[in-house]
Design a protein that fits this description.
heterodimer; A: Ubiquitin-like (UB roll); DNA polymerase, domain 1; 5 helices; B: alpha+beta; Uridine Diphospho-n-acetylenolpyruvylglucosamine Reductase, domain 2; Uridine Diphospho-n-acetylenolpyruvylglucosamine Reductase, domain 3; 3 domains; 4-stranded antiparallel sheet; about 25% strand
Chain lengths: ~160, ~290
């Protein structure tokens, strides 16, 4: 069976890969390209651990085929820090211990960044609704919410 | 998963030909939020996936003669961000935007929600209330049908082999018109409707001159409840009229007992949601 050749952009780098018709973009990122930051939690679009950006929209990597990335602009958690310089959200998650096991963290970070780019001053209510598609079984969410709200306030200064 | 062919045609004709040529093993991919889950769970194993997101007509919202046509593959996020659609059809848009998380909204389409044919699909009661028309195209050409005629049962539509959904037409709006959609779920977000109710109505000088009601999750398919609409027309939407329309909704229910709700509970809630949704639509119609 012949593979599908895909030309795309991932974290501002041109990337080419080969995939099968059944492979998700999450499979491609993790298994073909070695970008293992995006996690597979549920595989059914419920948990948000595989949240990535495609053409500026937040999606679940487990619910998009690799072949669909042709000509798209994909952004993953690997593109969030600038070299050794962490994104303010990443830094704050560490400072406030807004993570324990870390499986959900890349998804929360990508989703939170997407919100703050659209709405620099979210209410806690808006933030909690925005993150309803990201599940965390460790923190109880409060620390995550607190971290994102603090970063939002810092970025507005 | 087994070997699967992937095609991303640029025209509807090509897409139809691909699906028609796949001997029933072809599946349309719009947002993929149902298709990929069904493939992964082993419910479906298509031989060919036809991605329709490279087709212009399926991926845009156009305005025609005062109405709107929503391409079948347009995502919920695009619909919610449109400059005029949410103002003209707030109920339809809130129903579509209730489907799943923000991540799901980035991909899931109204066309896909329709084709998945769940009795509890959130967008469908609102589209029925709106009087929306489904545009489909197949090997024998193009045809249209009202949304309430689209479903044949849970997971089944009245599409004939090779037909695909192209778009959803929303009619022009008379002055003083508005719609609303409400669903009951046991939590505040990310759940499947126990009951869903869409109401679209027109008010002129305080009187209701037109009304349509759609109900979801109370029967094998989403329902148009004509008697409920009739009970509202000619009234000022007073308590008696709302009570009569609620009774019509309860009478239309043929629900099942399941983990989300019992027959008795769903039936009662259908009437409650009708009254609340009608009040929201009326408030919106008054501006």
């Amino acid at each position: 069976m012949s593979k599908i050749h895909v030309t795309t952009t991932i974290n501002n780098e041109p990337v080419e890969f080969l995939c099968d018709g059944s492979q998700t973009i999450l499979d491609v990122l993790r298994d073909t390209l070695g970008l293992t930051g995006s996690k597979e939690g549920c595989g059914s679009g419920d948990c948000g651990a595989c949240t990535i950006m495609v053409d500026g929209r937040m999606i679940c990597g487990c619910l998009m085929l690799g072949a669909e990335a042709e000509g798209k602009r994909v952004e993953t958690i690997e593109g969030m820090a600038q070299g050794d310089h962490l994104h303010p959200l990443q830094q704050k998650f560490i400072e406030l211990a807004a993570l324990q096991c870390g499986i959900c963290t890349p998804g929360f970070l990508v989703a939170s960044k997407a919100l703050l780019e659209r709405n620099p001053k979210p209410s806690e209510h808006e933030l909690r609704y925005w993150l309803a598609g990201n599940l965390c079984r460790c923190t109880g969410y409060d620390k995550i919410i607190q971290a994102v709200m603090e970063v939002a306030a810092d970025l507005r200064k | 998963m087994q070997d699967i062919q992937y095609a991303a045609p640029k025209t509807i004709d090509e897409a139809v030909a691909l699906v028609a040529g796949a001997n029933g093993s072809g599946r349309i991919l719009a947002g993929g939020t149902d298709l990929l889950v069904q493939m992964r769970s082993g419910m479906l194993s298509p031989g060919l996936i036809v991605d329709v997101k490279k087709i212009g007509e399926l991926t845009r919202i156009s305005e025609e003669g005062g109405g709107f046509v929503i391409g079948a593959a347009v995502s919920g996020a695009q619909i919610g961000e449109h400059a005029r659609l949410p103002k003209a059809w707030p109920g339809v848009v809130e129903a579509i935007n209730l489907i799943g998380s923000k991540q799901i909204q980035g991909r899931a389409s109204a066309g896909g929600n329709l084709c998945n044919a769940s009795p509890a699909a959130d967008s469908v009661p609102a589209l029925i209330a709106a009087g929306a028309i489904v545009v489909v195209q197949g090997p024998k050409g193009r045809r249209e049908m009202p949304v309430e005629k689209f479903h044949a049962g849970p997971g089944r539509s009245n599409l004939t082999p090779g037909e695909i959904v192209v778009g959803l037409k929303l009619p022009p709006r008379a002055a003083g018109s508005a719609d609303a959609y409400l669903r009951l779920i046991p939590r505040t977000e990310m759940d499947i409707a126990v009951v869903g109710c869409g109401v679209s109505l027109t008010l002129q000088n305080g009187k209701c001159t037109a009304a349509r009601v759609g109900l979801g999750a109370v029967a094998p398919t989403p329902l148009l409840v004509e008697e409920a609409g009739k009970a509202l027309v000619g009234t000022t939407l007073d308590e008696a009229a709302l009570g009569k329309a609620a009774a019509a909704c309860r009478a239309a229910c043929k629900p099942i007992d399941d983990k989300r709700g019992t027959i008795a509970y769903r039936t009662k809630i259908a009437g409650v949601l009708l009254q609340r949704a009608a009040k929201i639509a009326a408030d919106r119609a008054k501006g």
